Amino acid sequence: MVQPEKKSEVREVLYSLSPWIIRVLLFSIVTNILVLAPSGYMLEVYDRVVNSRNHQTLLMLTLLVVGLYIMLEALEWVRSGVMREAASAFDERLRRRVFDTAFAARLKNLPVGNAAQMTGDLRTIREAIGAHVTLSFMDAPLALLVLVILFLMHPLLGWFSVIGAVIQVVIGVINERRIKEPMMLASRGSTASQMYAGSVLRNAQVIRSMGMLGNMRTRWLAKQREFLASQADASDTAGANASLSKLVQSLLGSSLLGIGCWLTLEGNLGGSGMIVGSILGGKVLSPLVQIIANWRQVESAREAFARLDGMLKAFPAEEKKMPLPPPKGALSVEGVIAGAPGSQAQILKGIAFRVAPGDSLAVVGPSASGKTTLARLLTGVWSPMSGKVRLDGSDIYSWNKEELGPHVGYLPQAVELFDGTIAENVARFGAPDPQKVQEACRMVGLEAFIATLPDGYDTPVGDDGAFLSGGQRQRVALARAIYGMPRFVVLDEPNSNLDNDGDAALIGTLRELKAAGTTVIVMTHRMNVLSVVEYMLVLIDGQIKQFGPRDQVLSALRGEQPPKPSSASKPQPQPPKGVSLEPVKGGQP
Ligand SMILES: Nc1ncnc2c1ncn2[C@@H]1O[C@H](COP(=O)(O)OP(=O)(O)OP(=O)(O)O)[C@@H](O)[C@H]1O
Q: Where are the transmembrane segments (predicted)?
């Protein structure tokens, strides 16, 4: 079946700029006429002043031309201003959508560079709209009118101008062909080099401690050399062609004067015709020369347009859906097969289980068995290849996350904090509710630490929480996950960085969540977490090996009879065979 062509959002936004474009086109008519003022002045001075030797006429003509100059420059200023306004409007109308799409693309495992390229592409198009070259495009139709006048004056003048224009276009095309490849390599190389430098700077401590700076620098220098060589190649070619283009323009101006003079001598053109002809010839070429000189900018904008449009088509805006009622926390995982976005490899190979509202489940399993993958599916970060993850019966992946977010808590394995204060991070960068922030920090045992800080909850955490210790970062992230007591919480290795106190605080947090009726799923390698959960799921190589009430699963793993229900209130979990679990740190909480 033929798929209908998806609408081009970027093109639609460009079309929406027509009120600005029409205004500029109207101004362009006036400026293009005013541009002829110096030529008119020259002719009038020759015709009227030199012959009549009239000082007053000279004064009047000079005052008139000065007035016209001022008007021309004022209009040019207004014209550029209107285009800059149009450029801002373009950015304004797309920036939110571009940001969201870059974010969605990153969630689909697209490299950071490609996702970030989108904001660069938006900037490239915006700059091209506001650039002088766009005005040259608007001047081009009027240049055609000037060409018609030249033909009417004498066909020879017209043809000479056309030949000049054709030579200019040929130079432009050759230039573009020659520099396209090196420019592309230079642009890619520059991005790669920048990203590499960024990653070196982010990991400065590792590099310093193991004396890796020399090796890293050598790599960076090689990347720099590579892209600078391509850039130099492109600039050399562009420079040579620009000089050639200027030469053609100067030659054409003088040739037209010569031809005009010859035509006058032959009696085919009036005396002033030769001057008018040479001046008008220059006007035909001027927008063309501008366009050719800035053709790279036009090409870059065209490439950025294609890339941006492709990405926006690949990631359509989320449709507005009817809001769903807040979830109660009933989780159902139905025949889920899943892998990393963009990859066909299956990490989870047919997973199905249910967790009732308020119940807690520990997911254990060896490294790389798929626990983190499951956490990403349970929180709707990744979508399954087949099957569904449902919260209160609704597909969690398609649930509007802005709407669902306050009811869900997620602590990822790699803790990510953002540049802001403790309170802002805990409150998920919404307006912090001081009571809820304090409550979340109390539950994870951060209160005492925060009390020692001069700025308390308003203390900045630094980029990615750089001012905090690993354990503190994990606790702040845990507080963020439980901020506002969500109904559904997924914790991926919540105690990987915690000491005994932190572990005890975590167990306390899990108990409080339980008491509040929150459904909790916790991926763990630690035994002590098992003491506060009711259910257990053993994941091995992407498949469920065991699932059920905790003690039953533990007994099954040890090859024993399941314990009697009463023992569930006094859990004494032991490491099962085949599943590596670290012993409880600091004893039973
Ligand atoms: N973003 C990704 N892109 C491609 N493959 C991935 C990605 N994330 C995980 N994988 C692969 O999926 C498999 C399962 O990884 P996952 O992180 O889910 O395991 P895990 O059980 O959480 O391991 P651990 O206990 O070590 O954290 C691994 O083989 C890993 O290479």
A: 20-37, 57-75, 128-150, 156-174
